[in-house]
Amino acid sequence: MTETPQRNSPDSGSGKTLSKRGGGDPGTRGRTTIADGVVEKIAGMAARDVVGVHAMGSGLSRTFGAVRDRVPGGTKSVTRGVKAEVGESQAALDLEIVVDYGVAISDVARDVRENVVAAVERMTGLEVVEVNIAVSDVKLPDEDDDEDDGDQQRVQ
Prior knowledge:
Layout lengths: L35 H13 L4 E4 L2 H12 L11 E5 L3 E11 L4 H20 L2 E13 L17
Helix pairs in contact: 1-3
């Protein structure tokens, strides 16, 4: 005589088999995609939070951005100077920054990388494989600031 193991389940002895609905944890059903622009916004905000980063983008993109910001209804672009490539589980970022005069560029670049990686990985769950930083300019103390001119009127 062979023994058959008995299961402790709700259908034991009833002759009916119960199947689990949905196939697993509700949090794992379906697929989430994150657009490049979302990652660019997160990275742009995180980079701007670093002390020593004066602005994002090249001189030309900042000039066009300053003009666009002055248009009624226009908003500052947080993605200026940020380019992201997003895959299914990884992201790579290229940032173009302007640093304040007198700061150690290597320290600012390291801090930007750390802040951007932490923010993107925390908010998206993506693995950030690289953050390339190009320093396109240094803001000197006596230079006019194109980005702050929108707050002052030219003629009073």
